[in-house]
Please model this.
Amino acid sequence: MTIGPYQLSDTVRIPLEVTLNGIPIAVTNPRLQQLVLPDGTSASGFPQTMTRLKDGTYMYEFVATIVGNYIAIIQAELGSNTIEQIEPFVVGKPFGFPRIEVATDD
Model:
């Protein structure tokens, strides 16, 4: 699954879907375990709990404030096992309005 691309000030939505034979299943403690920032450091304040949308489907949201490549490390418990998903995504610079600058001889 690919998420994004995003621009500065966008709400980044990191999804998690857990299925067994294509059927969504509930997990325990779904969380964004770590968010690796574009400079390679980890964002503070993690892990953070993901919001349950329905059994097997979860979401974490935050506002993008730094341009670059991120890595989201998502974890949850399934029985006695910890499952993990690594999700890369990009936050780019906002697109401006097209503009032509015309010089005049004044």
Q: What stands out?
A: The chain has a mean pLDDT of 90. The two ends are 56 Å apart (CA to CA). The CA atoms of residues 15 and 34 lie 14 Å apart. The longest strand covers residues 81-92.
